[in-house]
Design a protein that fits this description.
heterodimer, A: 222 residues, mainly alpha, globular, B: 108 residues, 2 helices, rod-shaped, disordered N terminus
Chain lengths: 222, 108
């Protein structure tokens, strides 16, 4: 008999989507802070930090609900070690790696920066990697990739971060090193297009639950 | 004539008065920004919790159906409030006297 999902399963999914939204807001605020340092610095930086901590709270809820929920049979090992889970292992693993990169960024930035400014800036750019991994995790592992509301929220996250990066960060960097920032702008657009094409060909197609590695006895509940 | 608020400025040089005034303005602006940030953070947290609840209901209704969600929500409430006697409705509520029939659709 197919097990019915518990309330924790739905908490897990909703908290995951809210975490991605908050991470995207944090990214946009960080881009604005670095691209236009004179625009309300106290407010932008304060909101950037507070939303980053709020995102950790929702990520914690997402992880705890996933581990406690009996439906997908995930355990602490699945939440701590990437790519070992029997439930959509690759896509779940990307979320675990994203969580580690994100946590490392928070730890080296809050409550005080732990490196020289130049080193910290370079390390802090790994947040782009954490965000892309979180997005891939959301689309690949998420049971709601084809849900219209979740899809709309994911599109808003991608559009918001891409527009902020191109309109604020690239334009600001262009003045100093045009070639480098033209290359980075092209890379951002290509990565976005690549994720879009992959999403249309993969997670948005029927049968993704099977091909993404869902255990057969859970398939009928998806 | 000097009022009580102007004590301490007698004998001060113009640049000192300007400097003190700038410092007061700067402190007031910082306090305003702190208050705005506090409100922004609280509003973001409330919005995030609200969105989480909306997404929870949407995923649950989409997968289980409204009746099962009623039972799930009630089971959670009863777990937290053991004395409560909340029960899911046995049947759909009847329309109020004099009210016309309500047409319901199945949704998507």
């Amino acid at each position: 008999m197919t097990p019915l999902p518990s309330p924790l399963w739905f908490v897990d999914r909703s908290a995951g989507e809210v975490t991605l939204l908050l991470m995207s807001a944090v990214m946009i605020l960080g881009i604005v802070r670095s691209g236009v340092p004179t625009a309300f610095p106290f407010l932008v930086e304060g909101a950037h930090i507070n939303l980053a901590l709020l995102a950790i709270a929702f990520a914690g809820l997402h992880i705890v609900a996933a581990v406690l929920d009996p439906f997908a049979r995930l355990g602490p090992i699945d939440a701590l070690i990437p790519f070992v889970s029997a439930y959509r292992g690759t896509w779940l693993g990307l979320g675990v790696v994203s969580g580690y990169v994100y946590s490392a960024n928070v730890l080296m930035s809050w409550p005080a920066r732990r490196f020289s400014r130049a080193t910290w800036v370079w390390l802090h750019r790994s947040m782009y990697v954490a965000w892309v991994l979180a997005l891939l995790h959301s689309l690949g592992t998420g049971s709601d990739a084809r849900n219209e509301l979740f899809l709309l929220l994911n599109v808003l996250c991608v559009a918001g971060v891409l527009v902020a990066f191109l309109a604020v960060r690239v334009i600001e960097g262009w003045r100093a090193v045009p070639t480098l920032w033209a290359g980075l702008a092209l890379l951002a657009v290509l990565v976005t297009l690549g994720i879009g094409i992959w999403a249309v060909e993969g997670p948005l197609q029927p049968g993704w639950a099977r091909s993404s590695g869902t255990p057969p006895d859970l398939l009928r509940s998806h | 004539m000097d009022g009580p608020g102007s004590t301490g400025t007698a004998g001060a040089k113009p640049w000192q008065i300007r400097d003190a005034s700038d410092r007061r303005k700067s402190r007031r602006r910082a306090a305003d920004h702190r208050e705005t940030l506090r409100r922004l953070t609280v509003a973001s947290a409330v919005a995030a919790v609200g969105l989480n609840a909306a997404l929870f209901l949407q995923t649950a209704v989409g997968q289980l159906g409204p009746a099962e969600v009623d039972r799930t929500v009630l089971s959670v409430l009863n777990a937290f409030l053991p004395g409560s006697t909340l029960q899911p409705p046995a049947e759909a509520p009847s329309p109020a006297p004099g009210a016309g029939p309500v047409v319901t659709t199945g949704g998507s």
